[in-house]
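Q: Could you predict the 3D structure of Acyl-coenzyme A oxidase?
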Amino acid sequence: MGLSGISLLTTTYSLILQHQSLLLCLRAKGFGLDLKKDMEGVDYLSDERKKAQFDVEAMKIAWAGSLEAFQLSDRMAKLVANDPAFEKFTRPMLGRKELIKNTLRKAAHGWKLIVDLRLTEEEAKWLRLYIDEPAYTDLHWGMFIPAIEGQGTEEQKKKWLPLAKKMQIIGCYAQTELGHGSNVQGLETTATFDPQTDEFIMHSPTLTSSKWWPGGLGKASTHAVVYARLIVGGEFHGVHGFIVQLRSLDDHSPLPGVTVGDIGMKFGNGAYNTMDNGVLRFDHVRIPRDQMLMRVSQVTREGKIMQSDVPRQLIYGTMVYVRQTIVADASKALSRAVCIATRYSAIRRQFGSRNGGPETQVIDYKTQQSRLFPLLASAYAFRFVGEWLKWLYTDVKERLAANDFSTLPEAHACTAGLKSLTTSFTADGIEECRKLCGGHGYLVSSGLPELFAVYIPACTYEGDNVVLLLQVARFLVKTVSELGYKKPVGTTAYMGRVASLMQNNCAVQTAEGWLNPGAVVEAFESRAARMAVRCGQQLAKYENPEEGFAELSADLVEASIAHCQLIVVSKFIEKLQQDIPGKGVKQTLEVLCYVYALFLLHKHQGDFLATGYLTPKQASLANDQLRTLYSKVRPNAITLVDSFNYTDHYLGSILGRYDGNVYPKLYEAAWKDPLNDSDVVDGFYEYVQPILKQKLRTAKL
Ligand SMILES: CCCCCCCCCCCCCCCCCCCCCCCCCC(=O)SCCNC(=O)CCNC(=O)[C@H](O)C(C)(C)COP(=O)(O)OP(=O)(O)OC[C@H]1O[C@@H](n2cnc3c(N)ncnc32)[C@H](O)[C@@H]1OP(=O)(O)O
Ligand SMILES: Cc1cc2nc3c(=O)[nH]c(=O)nc-3n(C[C@H](O)[C@H](O)[C@H](O)COP(=O)(O)OP(=O)(O)OC[C@H]3O[C@@H](n4cnc5c(N)ncnc54)[C@H](O)[C@@H]3O)c2cc1C
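A: Sure. Here are the predicted structure tokens for Acyl-coenzyme A oxidase:
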């Protein structure tokens, strides 16, 4: 192909895409061909954007929740993207010390913006999201402050919150130990009351009692809420939170009796290594009595334990709050990966060229669609269930403030279950997006490896996902066992119709029949109710319920998943019953809602068939409908990911660039790698040349 042919090609975007790689070869060293001029400023996805069947601006608002939420988030995204202090592309190449220093610098700059621009709490949260770097400030604002707010008395809040909110102290949440994380009652750190001095003595009696994992503890925190066994008069009175100062407020050195440091490198480059997860030991460290968080239980000057009306479980309240935020974050992480994979799938072409015409965009392969579109639909589903969960949490918080604890068990079950469901799916979904991007997805510049490495601990922190599903199972089993005399409410209200849900079978006769919210919800309710009741029946066979629970735990986990999927499906459907303005917006969301539900039905059809609710024919009809739905998603795919309104800075991905200008930018990025600073690699003369020059007679391999 001659140069005249090249100039002809540059006039047609789709053909340029076909030949970008060839053109770039010519541009490589020696050819001196500069295509930059032709490539920049061109929207390679414009044809895709023209296919949209809905109003993208209105969808952005539907995704954000309201016009105000959209404007606020958009303002913060641009603030971060336009500030060079928040550059993040070199992050995976930094050594640990440099990395942490860089994070401390960004946190200081972020805090300065918050103060100088007088940002609200909501704005600060968006700012943090778009800075996209885990830091000690997450635990200070996300756990230390909420722990004091939820478990402190009015006096304690008055004393500590102003200091914390002005960041005159920095706190972390020190619960997990080397020996115990899930089993909070098994923690070994002790807080022994000394009536002589009116103090608690904080002590780490064993190696396994060392605090291990708390974020921000390693290097940044001056204080911690430490969870420890309360010992008064030689007796153990359960685990409680204590505010403990760890480091000097003058020179940041550890206080006497405190041993504190970082636990070391974690999975991936950059990623969560920006966080100083720490280790902490106490050697008989004394703190004043009023530093035990005393909303739940109080220790008097005389060493008496007083219980307030507040249930003990409130000690776990901070975890309920954070689990709720983690569900909201799942939709952000998944949508980000999906945005990258969708845009790249429209740019990438493989096979199918006839008579020299363009090859097929990989997004047009049905297999690509059946892997990608359920993830896209799930991102929307998680967004809406996250919105609902935020509402539920706000309601519970208001009730707790008024000493109404009635909805706490349901809030615990919902936050635990949805945290588990959404983070497990998102972690797998990010990895699927990497595979959807083929080889280039494995490059750090695709943004996916770091996103995956940062995200996956969400399946473990704030409660291991299996442990949390077992909590949901306990709640379900209790609900089933009480059915005879207690009307289930909230997310278990469907159990109140258990008799009909056990008897009625699915009435769907055609593929179109599945496009009915009532039919979909009933299918998920019947499956969840039947699985929970079946577990209940099995459990009844055991004399010792705990033994039965342990024996049946794998089935119980599956019943919990069924219940949580029902919540997500029904909250999506409820969302669609609201007024959602904008041409085609509601209709497009309806398509996604059915994709989400029927994809789950297809994936878990074993459950639906085994519980006897569906026939194989009906399951097959659901799959037929799913294929039709994918065709409806296809023209809207690019604009559905545009509706997330993510900046290129936030996406941090060459494959996911808004303009689709992938190949030139990948090519450019490769040449910026420090390894390409010289033609001859460091170490060549020491280690490679001697091998090349050696004169072996034989090699025995
Ligand atoms: C550069 C940037 C610049 C920025 C600049 C700007 C700066 C400024 C920015 C400003 C903004 C920044 C904002 C940032 C935000 C960030 C967000 C945070 C990020 C978070 C990161 C995450 C970190 C991760 C943190 C962590 O990882 S922290 C550790 C978490 N650890 C766990 O999660 C342990 C799991 N284990 C258990 O949760 C329990 O242990 C166990 C299993 C329940 C058994 O517990 P056990 O006591 O044995 O209980 P049972 O006997 O089973 O139950 C007994 C009874 O209690 C019940 N019940 C159990 N629970 C609970 C519960 N909650 N609630 C209620 N009830 C409960 C149960 O239903 C039963 O009721 P009943 O049936 O009796 O009625
Ligand atoms: C990146 C990161 C940040 C963290 N930040 C903090 C922090 O700021 N503060 C803090 O206090 N902690 C923090 N943690 C700790 C975290 O909360 C715990 O690791 C988590 O709760 C899991 O507990 P574990 O490590 O004890 O897991 P384990 O309970 O030891 O889990 C190991 C395996 O055992 C299984 N298992 C455990 N119990 C049961 C059971 N009853 N039934 C069936 N299976 C079971 C689990 O499913 C898992 O497969 C962090 C952890 C990570 C990875």
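Q: Anything worth pointing out?
A: Residues 1-33 have pLDDT under 50 and may be disordered.
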